[in-house]
Amino acid sequence: MNRSLGYAALVILVSALNFTVHAQDKTAAFFESPDLGNEIQQQELVPLDLIASDESPLPAGNGTAFQGREIYAEKCAACHGDDGKGGPANQPLVGGNIHSSESPLRTVGSFWPHATTLFDYIRRAMPANAPKSLSDTEVYQVVAYVLYMNGLIDQYAIINADSLPLLIMPNAEGFIDMSK
Question: Can you give the three-state secondary structure of the chain, one letter per residue?
Answer without folding.
Answer: CHHHHHHHHHHHHHHHHHHHHHHHHHHHHHHHCCCCCCCCCHHHHHHHCCCCCCCCCCCCCEECHHHHHHHHHHHCHHHHCCCCCCCCCCCCCCCCCCCCCCCCCCCCCCCCCEHHHHHHHHHHHCCCCCCCCCCHHHHHHHHHHHHHHCCCCCCCCCEECCCHHHCECCCCCCCCCCCC
